[in-house]
Amino acid sequence: MPDPAPRNILVAVAWPYANGPRHIGHVAGFGVPADVFARYHRLRGNRVLMVSGTDEHGTPIMVAADRAGVSPRELADRMSAVIRNDLRDLGLSYDLFTRTTTKNHHRVTQDLFRTLYDKGYVLERETLGAFSATTGHTLPDRYIEGTCPICGYPEARGDQCDNCGNQLDPTDLIEPRSKIDGSPPVFRETTHFFLDLPAFKERLAEWIGAQRDWRPNVKNFSLRLVEDLKPRPITRDLDWGVRIPLPEFEGRDDKRIYVWFDAVIGYLSAAVEWAHVTGEPDAWRDWWQNPEAGHYYFMGKDNIVFHSVIWPSMLMGYGAGGEVGGGEVPLELPDDIVATEFLTMEGRKFSSSRGVVIYVNDFLSRYDPDPLRYFLTIAGPENQDTDFTWSEFVRRNNDELVATWGNLVNRTLTNAHRNFGSVPEPGELSEADRAVLAEVDAGFETVGDLLERASFKAALGEAMALATRVNQYVSEAAPWALVKDDRQRAGTVLFVALRAVDSLKTLLAPFLPFSSQAVHELLGYEGRLAGPLEIREVGADDDDPHEVLTGDYASSVGSWTPSALPAGQELREPRPLFAKLDPDTVVEAELARMETAADLA
RNA sequence: GCGCGGUGGGGGAGCGGCCGUCCCCGCGAGCCUCAUGAGCUCGAGACCGUGGGUUCGAAUCCCACCCGCGCACCA
Questions:
Q1: How many Å from the N-terminal Cα to the C-terminal Cα in chain A?
Q2: Fewer beta carbons within 10 Å, N or C terminal of chain A?
Q3: What mean pLDDT is predicted for residues A141-168?
Q4: What does the DSSP assignment read for A368-427?
Q5: Rounded to an integer, what distance in angstroms lies between the CA atom of residue A230 and that of residue A305?
Q6: Which stretch of DSSP H or E encloses residue A468?
Q7: What region does A138 belong to: left with phi over 0, alpha with psi -120 to 50, or beta?
């Protein structure tokens, strides 16, 4: 297929909040789909910039820090490192995974705030706020509980009563108390800045209405939100967050920018930081100020509003303006907002506090990353909520990954390695030989088209169907029988099968990067398909040293093409790609582990 | 109230005629034996949530109801 000119693709991945380790539901939502998409586009020859980082400001981190007896900064440092390691171990190929506590991020956030303020999109309003009596900080509604004035339920939250379902205001609660320390909250007038969302209503409605490719849930939900927009606060009474860049707030420790506001700006600030780190400080503009670039955002469905309404409003309001933008070309709006539904755990909602959870690092301490990536793609919540069960995980691993793909690789390589030692020299190809190769080659088109459209489940299913197709070919051609009396023909069949496996390795590489690398090596290639990922320290020149997750993926760029495996290439000693799991022991052990955690919680 | 969904035993796709069709499993039978007891072939199994309607024709469009999930000042 003729390749069009390379496109610049921004893969903007939701920022995991650093108040604790992330669980597999989180990475099912933002991480794995985004990584599959980014890896595919690199293979396709496009210039990918995949950015994200840990989201480290706000009340929940202060609360968690308090509980742990450390400062917010210390807690954020600790959790950021844990999350960074988890994402690396899962093989999420960020070009830059940074943090919101960097100088660069604060600078970019302040520029956005300042510019929106100067252009009149920031309003100042008096509101009645709830404060912790002990710390004086803003107490978010969900951290206040008390007796519901409607149904008398004693543990109603400040925003809603879980018993009768009515929306509440924290001032409605009878005997309100802080969920953090039990003290009664103090209500008082406070001044905050608000983002004037209604100012963008018409432009948002027109822009969202014109979208053709968004998933229906995202588009309809967003259109509905736009009908009823209210100004939204962008500051809080805290001392942990980005400082408000206005003269009257200089040196003041009582107000900060609201964490959600700085978190969404991370997509931009991380791109700016990436450009700085790579030594081409303006390179980020190739994505952000380039109308030809594609901007793709990945998140769980609970985050849609920020990406389809609020962040676009901020971008529209900022326009070309500000110190960072430079005043000439407006910043690009999202092209697609890929929101994933929710994953549940053995029929229950994930809940860290109730022990219904499986953390990424815990999972990866016992199982390999590719089976998890496989499960989360083939059985994940792409279009509707789905349930993670251990028995289904084991089944998918054993009956699909091991039996179809792992076995194909193993039987093909074993036959070839044992009988020939290297890729056999083929004779003339038969019709069946050419047919199977043509079908696999066509996969680069079909799987690629599905990936373009973010249909990950279908794309992986298609690639797996091709593996089944090659299994059929191998069964029919039976090279193990041929080798006894027609060595030439056996060699031809194995040559065809090896080429098919080599192509499938590429087709599966976005989904299963670790095992595709293994196949690459077994086939006798040197070097890496992509990566490796690395954690390294940057920012020393800016007096702001911090660790980031990054990697060099240049080797994979443009290799989305059918195999050209040369005859004569030495094969390595085959070994199984995936571990088969014992259903009984795994399911029993994991369910017991979950029950123990739930009992402790 | 609004949005998304409800498809053989499990999980999904299909979203006006080719459809009760397709995919991954499970189940039954057979073939093969190179391969991690893996692979290949054939078969049984469904009132497409329920009730209405539109249409020459509906899983697919409309209405009502039932069930599940979600719904911004939480991050």
A1: 56
A2: N
A3: 69
A4: -HHHHHHHHHHSS-SSS-EEE-HHHHHHIIIIIIIIIIIHHHHHHHHHHHHHTSBPPPP-
A5: 13
A6: helix A456-477
A7: beta
Residues 197-256 of A with CB under 7 A from strand B: 197, 216-217, 220-221, 224-225, 228-230, 232-233, 236
Whether residue A1 has pLDDT greater than 60: no
Chain B: bases < 7 Å from a protein Cβ? 2-5, 10-14, 23-26, 32-36, 38-41, 68-75
* Residue pair A509/A43 in contact by the 8 Å Cβ criterion: yes
CA distance A105 to A342: 29
Say whether the CB atom of A480 is under 7 angstroms from strand B.
Answer: yes
Strand B contact at CB of residue A166, distance < 7 A: no
Query: What is the rounded distance in angstroms from the CA atom of residue A258 to the CA atom of residue A144?
Result: 18
Confidence of residue A491 (pLDDT cuts 50, 70, 90): very high
CA A299, C1' B74: Å apart? 16
If we measure between CA atoms, which residue out of A99, A98, A94, A34 comes closest to residue A531?
A: A94
Residue with tokens 């610049």: A8
Question: Shortest CA–C1' contact from A472: which nucleotide?
Answer: B40
User: With contact defined as beta carbons under 8 Å apart, do A294 and A8 qualify?
Assistant: yes
- Of the two residues A201 and A209, the one the predictor is more confident about is A201
Tell me which of A100-114, A172-186, A242-256 is least confident. A172-186
A465 beta carbon to strand B: under 7 Å: yes
- The confidence score (pLDDT) of residue A511 equals 92
**Residue-wise pLDDT tens digits, A30-85:** 888 899 999 999 999 999 999 999 999 988 888 888 888 999 999 999 999 999 99
Question: Could you tell me which residues are beta bridge partners of residue A296?
Answer: A11, A336
A76 touches strand B (CB under 7 A): no
ipTM: 0.86
Residue A433 has pLDDT above 80, yes or no: yes
Phi, psi of A535 (to 5 degrees): -105, 125
Number of helices followed by number of strands (H, E) in chain A: 22, 17
Specify the pTM: 0.93
Distance A300 CA to B10 C1' (A): 26
Q: What is the pLDDT of residue A583?
A: 83
In angstroms, how far is B11 C1' from A350 CA?
Answer: 20
Buried b (16+ CB within 10 A) or exposed e, A444-454: bebbbebbeeb
Return the DSSP state at A58. S
